[in-house]
Amino acid sequence: MKTKTLLTKTNRLGLFEIRMESIGGLGANLAGKMLAEAGVLHLGLNGSNFSSYGSEKKGSAVTSFVRFANPETTIRAASPVDEPHVVAIFHEALFKTQDCLSGLQEDGILLVNTVKSPDEIRVLTGLQTGTIVCIDALGIAVQEKTRINTAMLGALCHIVDFIDPEAVKKVIQDTFSKKYPALVESNIRTFDRGCHELTVQTYTEPDFNIERRVFATQTLGYKTQTIGGIIVNPGNSMFKNLSASRQGFLPAFNADTCIHCAACDQVCPDLCFVWEQRTDEKGRAFQFLKGIDYQYCKGCMKCVVACPTDALAKVRESERYAEEHQTKHVFQLL
Ligand code: SF4
Ligand code: SF4
């Protein structure tokens, strides 16, 4: 293991900055802590880490920030990382709901948990130059019965030259052996696979066939803040899309084995199940389950547990599954 490391690239403050975009439950907060700890305790760097999250519940947005500096540089910045060298996206659906690439440097690195290729991610995000790294962290975590955070850490070690994998492994070992000793081996395996099972592609020239997007940087300061008290983007639970809260799985509905008992609807925390009144074989009015409105499904799987038949099953969410199996609610605005 290295004992003295020097950063090969820094910003004007002498810092190397990493931003991890995730949702609650995927372990980005812990990943940020372990990465910073590896840098400070085992690589001789200065480092800092903190996370930002709202309601601290599974599925809500979480961002973890990590900064490193050479030993002679004091880290004075305590604000969120606005212009990262590396952005790690723990959940691909976040591209739909937030500006994940905001501030990413032109030669920055984008790491994504996905089954897509770097070329596909480039088209999806509009990233023109930089390096795209793709890893099926969820697939690895499912096979190893762990969470994706250690696979993402492995990938980070592969792409950031000054982070020594042995240092991070040591921290993973220390962290898990305190609370979950039974999970040490599987997390080390997940980490090792994260180091190797990835696809890396660097783009040095812009591709003008790809739709260019401008990634916002921080624009609001004391001179440009919106006037207090004005809600410029009012929320409405009817329009809310919870797909980014799903952690890679959703309930699949099989109408053939459904007995329309509504056990699923009773446990669902959101308005996911869509019903329709029809007549039964005796001509009586009866509520039939039509399907699932995946816009509101956060993937908690309570319905799968409650279903007395095999009409609901937990399946890994694949590209466009939700759109193709969607049963939309029809609301009447009063
Ligand atoms: S997984 Fe089932 S219970 Fe949970 S939000 Fe989705 S439909 Fe509702
Ligand atoms: S719990 Fe299962 S069987 Fe009952 S209505 Fe829901 S999907 Fe159908």
From TrEMBL:
NCBIfam families: PorC_KorC
Keyword Nucleus included in the entry's annotation: no
Species in which this protein is naturally found: Fodinisporobacter ferrooxydans
Cited InterPro entries: 4Fe4S_Fe-S-bd, 4Fe4S_Fe_S_CS, Oxidoreductase_gamma_subunit, PorC_KorC, Pyrv/ketoisovalerate_OxRed_cat, Pyrv_flavodox_OxRed_cen
Coiled-coil spans in chain: none
Designated name of the protein: 2-oxoacid:acceptor oxidoreductase family protein
Residue span(s) of domain 4Fe-4S ferredoxin-type: 249-278, 288-317
Alphabetically ordered keywords of this record: Iron, Iron-sulfur, Metal-binding, Oxidoreductase
